[in-house]
Amino acid sequence: MQFNTREYEWSDTSVVVAGRMVTGMRGVSYTSSQEKEALYGKGNKPHSIQRGNKSYAGSIRLLQSELEALEKAAGGDILDAQFNVVVSYGNPSKGDSISTDLLKGCEVTEVPKGLNQNDKFMEIELPVVMLDVIRDYK
Predict the structure, then answer these.
(1) What pTM does this model have?
(2) pLDDT category of residue 45 using cuts at 50, 70 and 90
């Protein structure tokens, strides 16, 4: 049996935001977390781990022109929009199987902008919160 040890590259990643392929995407990251706490009783060691709420957050890094397109699609203010993000990893022409994650119900929490002397473009990182991350989405 032979294993494919090839890692995904940025060029093998596709990101769709609000149903639109974003070609000016510069990065995407997301995290799933759950509150956990050790439950203590008799003795000095925990008896179990208790679980609380799950939460999901991340960021979308894109070019200014992409932000403007998303704001226009949102009716003027991206802070008022809720959208899904689909992230697909893999390139079938290189023998990869496609792995897809759905970031469900994303909302942007702030829109920072800035440029520095000699910048050739504006890159904007939008922090997002979401309702769920569905891994290996079909």
Answers:
(1) 0.86
(2) very high
Written as six digits, the tokens of 113 are 């902008």
- Write out pLDDT tens, residues 72-131: 988 889 999 999 999 998 877 777 788 999 999 999 999 999 999 999 999 999 999 999
The total of other beta-carbon atoms located within 10 Å of residue 63's CB is 17
Q: For residue 87, how many other CB atoms are within 10 A of its CB?
A: 22
- Residue 74 token pair: 């949102």
37 token code pair: 């706490």
Q: Which of 62, 69, 65, 72 is nearest to 128 (CA)?
A: 62
CA dihedral 74, 76, 79, 82 (to 10 degrees): -10
37 close to 27: Cβ distance less than 8 angstroms = no
